[in-house]
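Progress against Task 2.4 (sequence-to-structure conversion) is shown through the following example record, which the project officer requested during the mid-term review.
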Amino acid sequence: MRKASITIKEIARQLDVSKSTVSRALRDSSEISEETKKRVIELAESLNYSPNPIALSLLRNRTQTLGIIVPDIANPFFSTAIGGVEDIAYSRGYHTMIYQSHESYERELADTRHIAMRRVDGLIVSISSQTENHDHFIELQEQGIPVVFFDRVSESTPSHKVRVDDYKGAFEATEHLISRGCKCIAHIAGPPNLSISRNRLKGYQDALTKHGIEFHDEWVVSSEYNQAGGTERAYQLMALKNRPDAIFAASDRIAIGVHWALRQLGYRMPDDIALVGFSDLSISSLLDPPLSSVAQPSFEMGQLAATLLLDLIESKSTPAAFETRVLTSNLIIRQSSMKELVSN
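Structure tokens generated for the chain above:
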């Protein structure tokens, strides 16, 4: 049989004082004498009293809970970022509730409505690939629930944002392929409505322009950020009459699909075609050949997003301006792109 929990009422009854006296004593109020506080605390400890979290949330107008929405928790990038959020949240006395949009706008919308009903103190989110209207995040803010975006950010929503320098990472990845003698470089971009996709595409394009390499529309295709999309687009690119000699993929999940397709088609990497991804998942170094990739500090992104959100929650005033924190990326060069240079 479940044991009844100890309440403030029971402590008050045993000490023959009022419930308000016990409540004030437990809150260390200056209105209560030190002797009474001592009696209340000693009895509370002996009875293993713990405050009702629902009552506390009503009293403080907080639930000590953060909501997190990510497209797919199976993606190691997002699971690592969640680890960073939880690292900071736990250290500051908060718990987390994790939701997955599964790249669906409707699912993301339902998640935000559930978050509002559950009275979370704030939300950290990376938007879905289908999300074009961001009004649901503004509605949360209007209800007093601050929102911080990371990686896939809403450019139209006034809020703190944490992202990596996608443009620089893509530029350096493309320039690396050019330095290895590649002249027919294709790009598999992510969904175009996401800012990370557009920034990575622009980095790719500008690197080509800088080095005087012609841009071909047929060599730029888009995909969802998943392995299946990468495989499908690799088959499409390699079927071209004028096929590429290198592929820069907008994510490692896309690149892993490309890697599999190239091996199935009998192409050797990097001799026949070079390949670079983006995000440097742990599995990337285990492929044969190992995948070159642009590394993102996902754990640190989660930590920073959580810190910015908690500062918003615990601040007594609205910030004068919201911040966009841009973390640096780092190109990790492995065998998949180390094409042997041919001397003239």
